[in-house]
Design a protein that fits this description.
With 216 residues, the chain is α/β, with parallel strands linked by helices. It has a single domain, classed as 3-Layer(aba) Sandwich (Rossmann fold), CATH 3.40.50.2020. The protein contains six helices and twelve strands. Strands 1, 4, 5, 6, 7, 8, 9 and 10 form an eight-stranded mixed beta sheet that branches. Strands 2-3 form a two-stranded antiparallel sheet. The longest helix has 20 residues. The mean pLDDT is 92.
Length: 216
């Protein structure tokens, strides 16, 4: 299942327009803040689909019946670009455990590239809800590879793959390689085009560079 949130009227669309805007995105502080806001809005939307259980909560004046999350949540982000969205998710799911993955494109002289993972830090995911964040879902290969690395020592109850902007190719890749019972896809927007270098068009550029500065 794919949830495309810019089809609905919400403040999310304002944040999305600003991270795309070449004039506004040059302000790194605002770019990070908007990614964080997008993460928080998406976290709230995802929270509506999760399972809850009723608990009796003691107040100073009596007992209140309240619904709380049934399964523990783990927020996983692909560094470095995923860190601002991770913070937005953590503000909503403040009791969540956390996982971090370092992934990058190793480019070859012929213009091709392969995805490399250098670092994975994670809790046991068995029976938990995994929220896997990356601002840009281009080919889908890094998201898929990251997911496979995370579940090697414990498979989550369900995984939500999350991107601020996705390409249709990336969405199709995840749908082809992972079942609906295994993974749900969430994105603020879906763009149709990928360049030869696998950059999303119109997209927004390199989210990691815009958030934290250019790298060598």
């Amino acid at each position: 299942m794919v949830h495309q949130l810019n089809k609905e009227a919400s403040i999310l669309n304002q944040y999305l327009s600003e991270i795309r805007n070449i004039q506004i995105q040059n302000d790194r502080l605002r770019f990070r803040l908007n990614l964080e806001r997008i993460g928080a809005v998406m976290a709230y939307e995802i929270s509506k689909t999760l399972d809850y259980q009723e608990n009796e909560i003691e107040t100073p004046l009596g007992i209140a019946n309240c619904n709380i999350l049934k399964s523990p949540v783990v927020i996983a982000s692909i560094m470095r670009a995923g860190l601002p969205m991770h913070q937005g998710f953590l503000k909503v799911f403040d009791h969540a455990e956390n996982a971090f993955i370092s992934a990058y494109r190793k480019h070859e002289k012929d213009g091709s590239f392969e995805i490399k993972l250098e670092y994975v830090s994670k809790p046991n995911l068995s029976g938990k809800t995994l929220l896997l964040c990356d601002p840009m879902l281009a080919t889908g290969a890094s998201m898929g590879l990251t997911y496979k690395a995370l579940i090697q020592e414990g498979k989550p109850k369900h995984t939500h793959a999350i991107a601020a902007i996705a390409s249709s190719e990336g969405v199709n890749y995840l749908q082809k390689n992972f079942s609906k019972s295994e993974m749900t896809i969430w994105t603020a927007a879906i763009d149709e085009e990928l360049t030869a270098q696998a950059y999303i068009v119109p997209g927004l550029g390199d989210a990691g560079d815009l958030a934290y500065g250019e790298k060598l």
